[in-house]
Amino acid sequence: MLKLMIVDDSNIIRRKIERSADAARFDVVGMARNGAEAVAMLKRTDAEVVTMDLTMPEMDGIECVERITAIKPETRILVVSALSDVETGILALEKGARGFLCKPFSSEQLNDALGELVEGIDV
Fold first, then answer.
1. Is 68 part of any domain?
2. Does residue 88 lie in a domain region?
3. Given a cut of 90, is residue 6 above it in pLDDT?
4. What is the C-alpha to C-alpha distance for residues 118 and 25, in angstroms, rounded to an integer?
5. What is the phi/psi pair of residue 21, to 5°?
6. Are 77 and 68 in contact (CB under 8 A)?
7. In Å, how far are 41, 52, 53 from 119, measured between CA atoms?
8. Percent of the chain whose predicted confidence (pLDDT) is above 90
């Protein structure tokens, strides 16, 4: 089972990802409201997979992706964002994210994106 951390300033989205993520593959080890919380939580939880919103207070998703990949480069990060700005999504991928999912999303879309993200990792 892979350790999953959910990072989003919306409690509704955090809970939706928590409910939707395939429980047979993912153990939700933490939920953060912003990038600063996520960086601190990563050190405690050793999460292997992270869902990351881009627009958050205190520390945005771009900076958080950069910090997480600096601390633990093998972390698989899936950006989950409502931003239709393609350039911002590309920037997140350049900083170390490995996938992108647009909000709103279905449970099936989330699990497909997470499945692609962790393909090849032994569970």
1. yes
2. yes
3. yes
4. 10
5. -60, 135
6. yes
7. 24, 18, 21
8. 87
pLDDT in tens, 21-37: 999 999 999 999 999 99
In a domain, 123, yes or no: no
> What is the side-by-side strand order in the sheet with 2-7?
26-32, 2-7, 49-52, 76-81, 99-102
Does 17 reside within a domain? yes
**Helix residue spans in the chain (DSSP H):** 11-20, 35-45, 61-71, 86-95, 107-118
Q: What is the pLDDT of residues 82-114, one digit of tens each?
A: 866 677 878 999 999 999 999 999 999 999 999
Q: Which residues contact 15 (CB under 8 A, 6 or more apart)?
A: none
Residue 121 has pLDDT above 80, yes or no: no
User: Measuring CA to CA, which residue among 87, 20, 95 is closest to residue 64?
Assistant: 95
Residue 48 domain boundaries: 2-118
CATH number, residue 57: 3.40.50.2300
Q: Is the pLDDT of residue 123 over 60?
A: no
